[in-house]
Give the backbone structure.
Amino acid sequence: MPRNSQSLAEATPEAIARAGLEIIQSRGASELSFRSVAAHLRVSHTTVVRRGGGDFNGLVELVADVLALELPEIAPGSGNWAHSTEWRFVAWYTLLTAYPGLVMLRGPRPWLGRRLLTRLTEPQLADNISLGLGPEQAFVAYRELYLYTLGCAGLVEFRDRKPTQLRTRAALAALDPDEFPVMATHLDTMSGLLTSDEVFHDGLRRLIESWAATAP
């Protein structure tokens, strides 16, 4: 693999992570590997392993942590609770859907990278407590918003919406209308909503409104 001292020097952990993000965005999460990152940066596989987390899970964690740098810095108490909460989670959802498959690559492991904790978790918990929620309620509210956002970002196809809609519609059309009368008669509605961002936004607003209503 062609490489030089300059490319080797520039193969920092952050550069490795950003190369990983570019690969996920342009080619899909299944293409992320130490070798694909090494080829992208024109350095050796060994260099990427050594500086990129040591194993594949470490590489994915590094990629996720650098992604969190793109989140806006919204300081606790800097605005209306509902607006700040929606802004934070919409920003995170937008980032995750820009890199489809990353959520599934990480699997069930908690998102505990320092940058995500700094930009999302800590300020949101602080705002939840300022809203009047107790510490336990503040964490439960955060957890619900967190899991909802991850689920919406991870379980919807964002790379190729139209083919997904067509496949879904074909599968629904094949259902026996006597056995599944609702699904079989609402093909366009159901297939369109399966890849709609508006479903996420509507659900997020409902969650935020429900927690705002519980505040003293």
